[in-house]
């Protein structure tokens, strides 16, 4: 990774232009060619430094709701249960983390309320794991900016 890659990462986390040719506009701001930017972004994605480029939406204004779900999953069953959770397009995050309470698999669901309930029921039935559902009540922080350069 070089200085240009770092500047690209910094620019992408700041904003993404909603124009006909967003990569051209970003490239102009970075002082590089559009093709070079696209090639570099593809490489950064392949390296796992960029997971996705997408909007942050206000779910409530779209008539949707969000929940954070915690599950108690045995280490031997973590891959199977994680695969079940990952089958749902409405799941945006799914991660395993140590926790003294035993709740170690965490994921988020964003969908219309009835679909959220449906997914929770299906995952509970298919996983046979204890589940704690934490609905979004109030949003305190919507994004994070890392000091890259």
Folded structure, characterized:
The longest helix has 15 residues, at 113-127. Strands 2-3-1-4 form a four-stranded antiparallel β-sheet, with helices on one face. It has two domains: 3-46, no CATH class; 60-135, 2-Layer Sandwich (Alpha-Beta Plaits). The protein has 149 residues and is of the alpha+beta class. Helix 2 (22-30) packs across helix 3. It has helices at 3-14, 22-30, 34-46, 78-86, 113-127; strands spanning 65-72, 91-96, 103-111, 130-135.
Class per helix and strand makeup: alpha+beta
Number of domains: 2
What percent of residues adopt helix (DSSP H or I)? 25-40%
Please provide the count of β strands.
Answer: 4
Give the helix tally: 5
Largest sheet: 4 strands, antiparallel
* Rg over C-alpha atoms, rounded to the nearest angstrom: 19 Å
- The CATH topology of the largest domain is given as Alpha-Beta Plaits
Output the CATH class name of the largest domain: Alpha Beta
- For this entry, what is the oligomeric state of its chains? single chain
**Fourth-level CATH superfamily of the largest domain:** Lrp/AsnC effector binding domain/regulation of amino acid metabolism (RAM) domain
Model regions low in confidence, pLDDT < 50 over at least 5 residues: none
CA-based shape:
elongated
Tell me the strand percentage band: 15-25%
**Strands side by side in the biggest sheet:** 2-3-1-4
């Amino acid at each position: 990774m070089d200085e240009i890659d770092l500047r690209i990462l910094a620019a992408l986390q700041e904003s993404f232009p909603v124009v006909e040719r967003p990569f051209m506009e970003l490239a102009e701001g970075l002082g590089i060619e559009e093709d070079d930017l696209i090639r570099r972004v593809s490489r950064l994605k392949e390296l796992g430094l960029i997971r996705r480029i997408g909007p942050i939406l206000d779910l409530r204004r779209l008539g949707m709701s969000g929940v954070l779900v915690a599950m108690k999953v045995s280490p031997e069953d973590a891959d199977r249960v994680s695969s079940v959770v990952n089958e749902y397009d409405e799941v945006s995050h799914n991660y395993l983390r140590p926790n003294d309470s035993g709740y170690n698999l965490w994921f988020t669901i964003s969908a219309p309320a009835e679909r959220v309930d449906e997914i929770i029921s299906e995952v509970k039935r298919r996983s046979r794991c204890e589940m704690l559902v934490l609905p979004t009540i109030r949003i305190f922080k919507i994004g994070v900016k890392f000091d890259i350069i």
